[in-house]
Every structure is written in structure tokens, then in C-alpha cells.
Amino acid sequence: MFSGIVEEAAIVRDLKSDGGNLHLTLDCSFVNELKIDQSVAHNGVCLTVVDIKDKTYTVTAVAETLQRSNLGKLQIGDLVNLERSMIMNGRLDGHIVQGHVDQTAVCEKIEEADGSWYFTFSYEFNPDMAKRGYMTVEKGSVCVNGTSLTVVNSQKDSFQVAIIPYTYEHTNFCKISVGSVVNIEFDIIGKYIAKINTL
Hints:
The chain is 14% helix and 42% strand. It is mainly beta. The strands form two sheets. Strands 1-2-5-4-3-6 form a six-stranded antiparallel β-barrel. A six-stranded antiparallel β-barrel has the order 7-8-11-10-9-12.
């Protein structure tokens, strides 16, 4: 379980394909605090640490994850948003995030807003999935590349988020441009409500 509060944008140091799997090796400032079998969110995708060596660690993404997320598009040198799992004795600064990416979205527009930015993302709309809570709502929560954000201008197949300078500088939003593919996880509370309404 995560909160969508990114701890650090890590650098991809190595990528190795192994059948349908992809082994990702990254470095970050808290490598020495990680443990084998620990869960870490990578651009919002929960992955298990399988190896730690020197100042880097390795996680493995399976084919299903690569198809549903942007991890398969990563290249050496790219930045990946990291968050370790929540400690259940503190404040929930973001929102409840499972680390299970629902689908990808594409950045359609970036607008400067007097020191901040509005990012517009579009995604493939599926009416059946929307009835099950896979959608955004105005002022609701959405997780973009592992970052907990508030939805503005919610549309059927798109939404906007406002990014302040701190978030821009400390996540990989600084590398997102028009056409970039990002991971999105819709709000789990909305999914439960939608499920209850179908019973």
C-alpha cells in the first residue's frame, strides 16, 4: 500500500530482458535501506526488490505489467518515481494507492500557470470499465506515475492536474512532454463504490 507521495526520482542504470520479464536496475539515495523482498512503487507500479549490489538495486516486471504500464518504454538514464510502502503509524499525506496501475495515458498539453503547470492527459475510455470506477471525478484523486494528484477539468477520456514547482523538480514530471506516456491508477474508493452500486 502506498500514498502517492514520491520519495525520489531514481535513475535507470540497466535494463535486461529475460523471456517476457524485464529486470530494471536503478540507483537512489536510500539503496542501503532497502531489503530483498521489499515492495517499492516505480512510476506507481508495485515491484519487489530482488537484488541489491553496490549502490544499485534490481526489480523485475512481468509481461502483464509491461503491457499495462510505461515501464517497458524506459531507457537507461530515464527517471523513475519511487515510493516505499506506507508505514501505518503516520499521516496519509496523499491518498490510498495500491501500486496496481490500471492503464496508461498520454500527455496532450502542458500549460504554464504563473509559476506552476497544468498537464492534460488523455486515456482510452471504456464505458464498461467506467461503470466499475475506472474514471476520474472533479477534485477527486488520481495517481500519475506514482504521484498522488487532484483532478481538475475531468472529462470522459481526459483530465488535468496542477503541478507545483516542488513536485515538478522532485519527480519525473520535469521530463514529461507532449506525447509522453504515463501510468495512471484510478481512485480505489471510487472502484469500491461503483462495485457496491452494481450489487
